[in-house]
Specification:
- This protein is an alpha+beta fold.
- The chain has 12 helices and 9 strands.
- The strands form 4 sheets. It has a 3-stranded antiparallel β-sheet. It has a two-stranded antiparallel ribbon with strand order 4-5. Strands 6-7 form a two-stranded antiparallel sheet.
- It is about 40% helix and about 10% strand.
- Helix 2 packs antiparallel against helix 7.
- A hairpin with a 5-residue loop joins strand 8 (about 235) and strand 9 (about 240-245).
Length: about 290
């Protein structure tokens, strides 16, 4: 195994917290943020108080909906994966009844953390390895529709054209069974006989065990695919479109979103393609943000 393979394998085996269907992409998002800082020329060890807000934003935007994102947890616990370390110049108090440090200590004492010296030197020496690792993290933990947005917020530069790992047969089958129309808004335009800006979304992400099955897929225009994967919209058990109360703005907001709230989702041409109830429930709890509008 080459040094590059060894480095990628260490991050591939990150011990990501799991409990049932709950998503916990805290460590992957911290790694991506640190990779962005490395590309920008930052020092190996980063003070927690400089990481707290950027990581909080990443967790709020791309983690599961939670009242408190707790960025201090991956900052502290990524040490156990052998790719990260934090300063031990002062003993940290541990929250009673847990193995977690006090966030206030990390900020007040400006405790710094970062990749181990070995990992940092290898990544610094191999810029392409940084991009390769970022792609691996993204592909393992997030749907493709979110990759560009996550990279932008984390400050990661992938370079070149990112290759899609999605099964083209899934896209084709889902779009076909939804009659080449967006399940949310009915958009269905072709250019030279080919669908324009129409995509196939997984209801339950494949990164969370969702299958490439018709009942786990929705045909979406590019706007509603991004909105669905970001948690701006979801679908009820009665297959009604729900729009998040956190969604605000202007420029066709009413037309593209507010007018859809409570409307019936489109209907596929085959019964077996009706959205799976368990997958919809997963999306509502693990992706959808805030409360549905009144």
């Amino acid at each position: 195994m080459t040094k590059t393979d060894e480095t990628l394998e260490r991050f591939r085996n990150l011990n990501v917290w799991k409990r049932g269907d709950v998503r916990a992409p805290h460590k992957p998002l911290l790694v991506l943020l640190a990779l962005g800082r490395l590309q920008a020329g930052s020092d190996r060890l980063l003070p927690y108080d400089e990481i707290d807000q950027p990581l909080t934003r990443l967790l709020e935007d791309f983690g599961p909906p939670r009242k408190s994102p707790h960025p201090e947890l991956p900052f502290f616990h990524l040490q156990t994966d052998g790719v990260w370390e934090i300063e031990d110049r002062v003993p940290l108090r541990i929250r009673k009844g847990s193995k977690n440090p006090l966030k206030s200590d990390l900020k007040r004492l400006r405790i710094a953390g970062g990749f181990t010296d070995e990992v940092f030197r290898e990544l610094k020496r191999r810029p392409e390895l940084v991009r390769q690792l970022a792609r691996q993290i993204l592909t393992t933990h997030f749907p493709e529709s979110l990759h560009e947005s996550i990279c932008s917020e984390a400050g990661v530069e992938l370079g070149g054209t990112e290759r899609s790992n999605r099964d083209p047969a899934f896209r084709s089958a889902v779009i076909s069974v939804w009659s080449h129309r967006c399940a949310f808004c009915g958009f269905g335009i072709q250019l030279d006989g080919r669908d324009l800006a129409l995509e196939a979304a997984h209801i339950r992400w494949c990164q969370a065990g969702g299958p490439d099955s018709l009942s786990n897929g929705l045909a979406c225009c590019s706007v509603h695919h991004q909105a669905f994967d970001r948690g701006a919209i979801t679908v009820s058990d009665e297959r009604r479109i729900l729009v998040s109360s956190r969604l605000h703005g202007s420029g066709r907001l009413d037309e593209l979103f507010l007018s859809l709230h409570g409307a019936a989702l489109g209907v596929p041409s085959r019964k077996e393609a009706l959205p799976d109830a368990d997958s919809l429930a997963w999306h509502r709890t693990q992706v959808f943000r805030g409360e549905a509008r009144d």
